Amino acid sequence: LALAFVGSLAGCWFAGTSTADFVAHLDRQVHAIHCSVVPGAQAELGESGCRTVMLSPYSSWFRDSLWGGIPVSLWALAVFAFLAYRSGHLLWRGRPTRSEAGFLLAASALPNVMSAIYGYLAWAEVGAVCTVCVGIYVSSAVLFVGALGAFLGSERPQGIDTTAARRFGVGVLEGVGFVVALTVVYLAWLPDTEGSERGAKGCGALVQPEDPAGIMVELARVPGGKPSIEVLDPLCPACRAFDERLTASGLDKKLDQRAVLFPLDSSCNWMVTQSLHPGACAVSEAMLCAQPDKARAILEWAFEHQESLLAEAKEDEGKLRQRLKSTFPEVAACLGTPVAKNKVVKSLQWTVANALPVMTPQLFVAGTRMCDEDTDLGLEYTLTRMLAEGGR
Fold this sequence. Notes:
This protein is of the alpha+beta class. The protein has 2 domains: 2-189, Up-down Bundle (de novo design (two linked rop proteins)), CATH 1.20.1440.130; 200-389, Glutaredoxin (3-Layer(aba) Sandwich), CATH 3.40.30.10. Helices cover 55% and strands 7% of the residues. It contains 14 helices and 7 strands. The chain has helices at residues 2-24, 49-55, 72-93, 98-126, 131-153, 164-189, 193-196, 237-249, 280-289, 295-304, 306-315, 317-327, 338-353, 379-389, and strands spanning 60-61, 70-71, 217-220, 226-232, 255-261, 362-365, 368-369. The strands form 2 sheets. The protein has a 5-stranded mixed sheet, sandwiched between helices. The protein has a two-stranded antiparallel ribbon with strand order 1-2. β4 (226-232), α8 and β5 (255-261) form a beta-alpha-beta unit. α9 packs across α13 (338-353). The longest helix is centred in the first third of the chain and has 29 residues, at 98-126.
């Protein structure tokens, strides 16, 4: 029982830490995130597995109805708190009965099942590992082992325990009560997204959305979908993450998607003094050289090999260009030519004509710009409403 109690308390700590990080981001600002199993470790502001997992659509439920949704870690905190109460009570009282230990064992299986499910999602779907989440997984295992030990060490009843089923039902209701109570508190303190934030109204609109130079590339054409324009850099990690979140949300299927390339690479972009993403100009040229239905394939390839492409371009952009030619021979004759470079310049001029900030990604739905603070946790909530209103 002592082991189960310790595991429950550890689970409360890790789930509480994760929930606190999630709640901090409900103000739509960027905050540091705790990504260590060591209690009291300093939070990290940069990219981390914990941030990636938190921003993924699997970290919360009801995102299309609530800005950010209800974090899974909140319910994990409620379950661990309930199990800490149950195991702590039995530990204080003494040796549990077989039915009491059986309920604790059955209840402790829940966080272990959820750990297996979310561990798989993090590994297979998100492609990142959250250290704090690993702490929850380990705590769940410790809790289960402790509950199993308590069950095996409990005394068998002399006869049939006629009250076991009733007590089991009461225990389930108590557990549900913990979850409901914490959820109600969370919803009560949730910021007023409708009245205080711009949301579907967006943050500005395109001045000149037309494409007379023909520099927009097709991402995913959906007949009848809302027209959208994404301003992106093919070697921008934030653009890759945004694309993954949009795809995972399923809302991409409601958008007729095109893109304007905005490489944050000083070799072609006069608006940046230092290359944030070296090699982005070369990849942008390749996308603009490709046939309309092939540009998406080059973008997906660039996203998949982003780290190696950035490193290669930083060392020698010529190697990157040669790699592009060998991987996509159909653009080899065009890549690096004045025509290709001129297309990139015209793409950049399009952003200037629309007075866009020097940043990526940016999403416009029917001409209305989605606010930057709504492109991560609030993506599903805001985009659902922008699709309903149709932008401007």
